[in-house]
């Protein structure tokens, strides 16, 4: 247990003290899966670029995978609500991602790369709602913001460490070294899953029902689609769609533009972008969890949406390798906040329906539409007009998200209530 103690949460509430080992392994799981879930992430673009792929062709193949993941996210969220084998689901998804990426290293034929991206995206789509269900089942609604903050902090710590190791190894051995690091993280994630005790998971609570409530009633099953939560969930999903339309391809494009403009080592530079962002995200996620308990999710969501246009403008107008610092720190602000806000807001909007993870899957489906289109959108603008205009085009998308959120909060009382501090409701 001594090795696990590094990941143990500090000062757990009395009602969670008996679950210390499971919550510790949940933190370790978030740390390890951070690298596995994203696959090669921005390193994939660098790898394909080194094999003669153009920015738009890289964008297209990423879009194919993103669309496949988008199509199954909501059904996989429903599966996360229904299944009592959440640990097995995560283990199979992790193994699928690593196997798909191994195929890409063996052959870079467009059909094989596209197929592998589809497999990776489908497996990755299962992870967020399943981890959300595990977290809610272990911590409960009352302690969810704090646990989400810990999850995100360890998630970003895992990403940062993997990027540093991948960058160092990639400097000498290229992008395949990043794959070796990811494979090690896969083994660590399987160990963490084994350490989460099944008896500590309340599967009714994990889907948004009262503890040990059993199965959802017919009225609860219909609540997501026909109840007052339906439109707020859709609006939150649209906000996430436009945010990720601008956000998803900005980091890969930053790495590609640096390679094209400044003739630097692509793997090392991309690793640096990830490390800066992940270091910022750790601090922001912990801060966001504390602020969510006191001020609610609303102020955090506004901050995340405002950070992205500023990030895109800096990348678009400051043509210098050092633009990495403010650009990726702002990435840390947006991603660190939304990692806490998105599952937390879904849990508040759908509390009592029995479909928290399905609702999160719906939100992430819309988010996936934006993320998958981001690669083609940014890649096409970069191919036609250059990297500077591409960053500005990406920066325009979250401005639409700001408008949608402003209109929705004014017209939807349930969303307005969910964004407020818990004590106000």
Automatic annotation (TrEMBL):
Keywords: Membrane, Transmembrane, Transmembrane helix
Protein name (record): Transporter, major facilitator family protein
Highest taxon of source: Bacteria
PANTHER family, sorted: MAJOR FACILITATOR SUPERFAMILY (MFS) PROFILE DOMAIN-CONTAINING PROTEIN, MFS TRANSPORTER
UniProt cross-references to SUPFAM superfamilies, sorted A to Z: MFS general substrate transporter
Pfam families: MFS_1
InterPro entries (UniProt xref): MFS, MFS_trans_sf
Bilayer-crossing regions: 58-76, 88-106, 179-197, 229-246, 266-287, 299-318, 324-346, 358-378, 390-409
Organism: Desulfovibrio piger ATCC 29098
GO MF annotations, alphabetized: transmembrane transporter activity
Species classification: Bacteria, Pseudomonadati, Thermodesulfobacteriota, Desulfovibrionia, Desulfovibrionales
